[in-house]
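At this stage, I wrote out one protein, both as residues and as discrete backbone shape codes, and that material follows here.
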Amino acid sequence: MANQPPTQNPRSEGAKVTRRTLTRDAVVASICGFVVVLMVGASYAAVPFYNWFCRTTGFNGTTQVATSAPSDAPLARTIAVSFDSNVAPGLPWKFEPEQNSVDVRIGQVVTVYYTVTNQSARTTTGQASYNVAPLTVGAYFQKINCFCFTEQTMAPGEKREMAVVFYVDPALAKDSENDTLKTITLSYTFFPVRDAVPKPVAAGEADQRKGNL
């Protein structure tokens, strides 16, 4: 009798196919999971990286942060700095600068004040963001002290003065692209903070002019 080829068990072959399919699916699922984790991590990292980039380069009108006044005397050249104030919907505050604009010498340290009033009958919290225009001037606008990016909690009807201390970097005078610059606009916008961390309001804070409230 001629030798017959071994008969294959259909169940055994089906089990092998199933195992290969499950292994392939597991590998694909693992790769997809890794990609999702990577994308989520990148999205979180992008925010601080973008903030660092803007603060370093002045991109998008982001001002710089200085720790002290310039060591040299101010230049003779003056520039008008105007002040803009805005309140986002949902925050019942009145927010305005005490002066619409000031003429400053390049390198001169200047202190200006904004007035904020909580017009509601409840305690509310806001936080301000800012930029300057023209956007390319952000790299030369140095703020020594301000109220931006700090949660401000206001009692019902409370009125408060908030200071901004700044100077225009003398390096601006060496930038030929700004030879015709006459005006810089500093703009703030207060946004509501929905889930503010409870903290006490300092007594007499509204009556004192402070650099950083």
Q: What stands out?
A: The chain has one helix and ten strands. Residues 35-61, 202-213 have pLDDT under 50 and may be disordered. The first helix runs from residue 10 to 57.
